[in-house]
Automatic annotation (TrEMBL), chains A, B:
SUPFAM superfamilies cross-referenced by the UniProt entry: Recombination protein RecR
Record-given protein name: Recombination protein RecR
Family in the record: Belongs to the RecR family.
InterPro entries, per database record: DNA_Rcmb_RecR, Rcmb_RecR, Rcmb_RecR_Znf, TOPRIM_dom, TOPRIM_RecR
Pfam family, one: RecR_ZnF
Organism: Sphingomonas liriopis
Keywords, in A-Z order: DNA damage, DNA recombination, DNA repair, Metal-binding, Zinc, Zinc-finger
Gene3D superfamilies: 3.40.1360.10, 6.10.250.240, RecR Domain 1
Length: 198, 198
C-alpha cells in the first residue's frame, strides 16, 4: 500500500481534466523517480502560480497584478472590448497580437445541459463596464459552438440598449471549433473580418 | 500571452507521462478556475510528498521513513524477498496483502531498446542482500513482458550460486500484462502458484 502522501497526490492529480486514476498513478511514479527533474519544478511552478497570480477584478484575466497588465496598459485601446468565454481564449487572442483593446472573461458559456445560467457568468460586470461608458465596440469572441453562439446572442440582447457597436468573430471558424484550438492564422482572419451581430 | 508563472506550470505538467501540451494547458486552466478545490490540494500534496517521502536505502520503496515501514516491520518474514521492477509493482502486491516477506525494487528492467543495462538497476544491492544471508526464497516478480522475463532470467543467473530458492510468479498472468494493471484476484493466483525458475 502506498503511503497516505502518495495516495493524496494521486487523487489530486486524478481530478485534473485528462488524467484518470491510472495515469495519475503513472505520473506520481514518474515524479517519485525524477524528484530533482520533475517533482521539484512542478512543485515550484505550482507554488509560484498559487502565490503570485490573482484574478483581475476588472476583466477576469489571471496575472501577477490586479488590475492585470492588459487592463493597466495605457497603450491598449479603451474603446474596444473583447468578450471571451475563458482565460485560455484571452491567451489565444493575445498570442495573435491582433486585438488592440481590452478583454472581458465570462468564465464559461451558457449551457442548459450543464445548468450554467447567466448569473453563473461574469455578465453583470460586463454590462456595468459598458454602462460606465467609453466603449465603442464590443467584440463577442465566443467559441463557434452551439453554446458559444447562444451565449453571444444572449449578450447581444443584453447590451443592445447601449450605444456600442456589437460585433462577433467572422465565420470562417470551423464549425464546432474552439478558439483555444485554432492556429493563429485562422484566428487572425476571423478577427479581421469580424462583423456586426445581426 | 499567459504569464511566465503559467507557462512554467504548463511546461512542468506537460512533461508528465500521459499529459501533452494541450492537456497540460487545460489542466492549468482548471487549476486556475478551482484554486481552493484543485490548486490548493495539489500543491499541498506535492509539498507533502516532496518533504516527507524518501527512498528506502534497503529496498527502494518510497515511504516517510528510511528504512521503510515494510523493511522495519518485525512481523514481515525476513526469509522471503520479492524482487519487483518498480515501486508501483510493490504497491500492487501490497494491495493484495498476500506476500508476507520483504521487497527489493530494481528501478526498471533490462532493455536493449532503451539501453538499460544491469548497472542501471539496483542489482548489486540485491546480490548483497542475498549474500548477507537469512533469505530462503527470492520471488522474481517481474512483469510478464519480454523485457521483464529477460530481467528475471538475468537475475536467476546472478543469484544461482546462493543457497536460496528462486521462484517467479506463476504463469496465468496474461501475456504482455503488467503487474500494476492486474486485478487482485489474478495477482493473488499468480503469487500462490509461484514456481521455481527452471
Ligand atoms: Zn484585467
Ligand atoms: Zn524498505
Amino acid at each position: 500500500m502506498a503511503s497516505p502522501e502518495i495516495e493524496a497526490l494521486t487523487q489530486a492529480l486524478a481530478r485534473l481534466p485528462g488524467l484518470g486514476p491510472r495515469s495519475a498513478r503513472r505520473a506520481v511514479l514518474h515524479l517519485l523517480k525524477k524528484r530533482e527533474a520533475a517533482l521539484g519544478p512542478l512543485r515550484a511552478a505550482l507554488e509560484a502560480v498559487d502565490e503570485r497570480l490573482e484574478t483581475c477584478a476588472t476583466c477576469g484575466n489571471v496575472d501577477t497584478a490586479n488590475p492585470c497588465a492588459i487592463c493597466a496598459d495605457p497603450r491598449r485601446d479603451p474603446r474596444a472590448l473583447c468578450v471571451v468565454e475563458e482565460v485560455a481564449d484571452l491567451w489565444a487572442l493575445e498570442r495573435s497580437r491582433l486585438f488592440p483593446g481590452r478583454f472581458h472573461v465570462l468564465g464559461g458559456r451558457l449551457s442548459a445541459l450543464e445548468g450554467i445560467r447567466p448569473e453563473d457568468l461574469a455578465i453583470e460586470t460586463l454590462v456595468a463596464r459598458i454602462e460606465a461608458g467609453g466603449i465603442d465596440e464590443v467584440v463577442l469572441a465566443m467559441n463557434a459552438t452551439l453554446e458559444g453562439q447562444t451565449t453571444a446572442h444572449y449578450l447581444a440582447d443584453r447590451i443592445e440598449r447601449f450605444p456600442v457597436r456589437v460585433t462577433q468573430l467572422a465565420h470562417g471558424l470551423p464549425v464546432g471549433g474552439e478558439l483555444d484550438y485554432l492556429d493563429e492564422g485562422t484566428l487572425a482572419q476571423a478577427l479581421r473580418a469580424r462583423r456586426p451581430v445581426s
